[in-house]
Design a protein that fits this description.
globular; Arc Repressor Mutant, subunit A; alpha+beta; 45% helix; 85 residues; three-stranded antiparallel sheet
Length: 85
């Protein structure tokens, strides 16, 4: 399975993904590069900056990627589906 498919399946299953989740859960270190590739091929991926707690107790801002509702439905074939082409 390609990194792109693994990322899409992760987002569909979990609702969103950050770089840390991509690295720790999937072993993919270049999430922003894969997202750029997906966007170039027409997949609509939204993003937003979110604040997260660091291990040292300070805050960090990270980008969270997610699928807008219409794109999620298109990729899964329905609201609760899991189809990814």
């Amino acid at each position: 399975m390609t990194d792109v498919k693994r990322i899409l399946e992760y987002i569909i299953r979990n609702g969103s993904i950050t770089t840390a989740q991509s690295f720790y859960d999937l072993g993919i270190s270049k999430l922003s590069t894969r997202v750029s590739e997906m966007r170039a091929k027409g997949t609509v991926i939204a993003d937003e900056w979110v604040d997260v707690d660091r291990r040292d107790g300070k805050k960090a801002r990270v980008k969270r990627y997610f699928l807008p509702h219409d794109e999620r439905v298109r990729l899964t074939g329905g609201i609760n589906g899991s189809k990814v082409d």
